[in-house]
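Morning!

This is the sequence you dropped in the shared folder:
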Amino acid sequence: MGGSLAKQEEAAVRQLRQDLAGARISHAYLFSGRDPAKLRELAFSFAQTLLCTSPAAGEACGACPSCRAFKRRAHPDFHFLEAQGSTLKVEQIRLWRPFFNYQPQLGRHQVFCLEGPEHLTAPAANSLLKVLEEPLARTVFLLLTRDCRVLLPTLVSRCRVLAFRSGGEEDSSCSREARDLSASISRLLWEGKESELLRALRLSGPDRAAARDLLKILFGDLEAIYLTRRSLVCRKPERAREELDALESLLECLVALERGIFFLEANLQTSLVLALTLRTVQKRLRGLKDVKAFSGSED
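The structure's back. Tokens below.
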């Protein structure tokens, strides 16, 4: 899959792999993250797999005519737009319109990728919104933004939101100890007892850097679940009441993790900060196992 999606294990990437493997493709995705280069790489990898005519286990084959055309950046079914200067104008969005009437020529879908929707002018945003409100057959939109909070709520609500951790230096700086520990701690946060969680923390005894990295990894995973859940609720307002408590609990978890990271960077006692932060998160997640399961499905 261009290597990018196949090698990464954060929640948002796992979600994309599950969508591909289960053929449960949304008509529009919003990739949110602070690293534009990483977002573009992931979007292109996802797009190549959507276009591939011989995917295997949710990954692009890399050898079919569609994949070869994509690698040459000459695929007739892949359309990419980015800001010219400081704005994305309605005239740029209108360049896509003729293609909306076409069937895919070489791949399985048409993919329209827009980098920087936060730069859309008001007319351009409204033009794009009209398209997203009426999904087109065999057509997928990918929007790449640094921060989905600055976008029109109506635009966000039409997309499946996936939050990605920063790539490059930040990902590589996360210690192997933190990455290895995050899987077991995450399981205990969702399913374990408080005593099991505290025992695991005592036995692992991560240093300050590993503890900070651990909280950052957990924050990224829970943020992806929160944004995806909120996106679905926006598309199905009738579910808002029943989901309100779950969203509130997830948001409280994110606040607790962010506060814990701040305390660690302020040199407060590592073991105490880690124990208090993760106990708070565990209490908020108690009874929300369906929310965890939701992260792999839209239904």
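Headline: The longest helix spans residues 208-235.

More detail when I'm at my desk.
O.
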